[in-house]
Amino acid sequence: MHDDPGSFAAAAGPLLQADPLSHTVALSVLDAMCRGGEPSAVLLTVHEVGEVTGAVLRSPGRPALVSAVPARLAPAVDRALAQVDPAVDGVSAPVAEAEAFAAARVARTGCRAEPAMRMRLFTLGTLVPPEGVPGRARRADAGDVALLGKWRHAFGVEAEHDQGHAGDAEELVARSLRMGAGEMLWEVDGTPVAQACAKPVVAGASRIGPVYTPPEHRGHGYAAAVTAAASQWALDAGARQVVLFTDLANPTTNRLYPRIGYRPVHDAVELRF
């Protein structure tokens, strides 16, 4: 166990950075923890013969991120987490790692593991911004926090995520801006109609999300346009890889992103116990 994100990053950083696509969520969450923008509930590394071979981290109220827990280590990590972080009630990772950890938990406790969300990770090839979409992109600032908080909350409700109160969503947006994320708005005649966020670049990669268009503005290509704008922001910020997750239950987004240059990498899942 690590008492602070800095020591965890020193130990687990090389393992996570060796595969920034598989560990995209863990890397961005750890970056936020190290910069004081995200609290930590558990920071655990596995050491074998002096080498870090596994790592897991969790933010309060969130599933444990187990992308860096190989299947062979899942039973040991599950037992360790049961002692130091009994509040763990779910995991998120690429399918193989998530299912291996869930199998260890089920074998130990007899609980059930149920999917909360099935996702697909996409990475950007050549960006192809959509043509003919009215409006323009701009980067959000402090004056947009209330609107983006409202939209962040609506996104969470619509996606059936636990986003808490609208005020909590506003704080998430304000924190994102303080951390230097590319919070992008698409405007038509000065009116915001869609948003997309590009996370700060970590280990050469930036992750897009969330992307949200209010219902009254859908069907005009704004989501594709603002996602392309956020992707360009990430590239301009130095990202060598730009990635995003889609909900496999949403066929619209799984068709949308390939049209602007994204290609699938692997599937991931969030499991609840």
From TrEMBL:
<protein>
    <submittedName>
        <fullName>GNAT family N-acetyltransferase</fullName>
    </submittedName>
</protein>
<dbReference type="Pfam" id="PF00583">
    <property type="entry name" value="Acetyltransf_1"/>
</dbReference>
<feature type="domain" description="N-acetyltransferase">
    <location>
        <begin position="135"/>
        <end position="273"/>
    </location>
</feature>
<dbReference type="InterPro" id="IPR016181">
    <property type="entry name" value="Acyl_CoA_acyltransferase"/>
</dbReference>
<dbReference type="InterPro" id="IPR000182">
    <property type="entry name" value="GNAT_dom"/>
</dbReference>
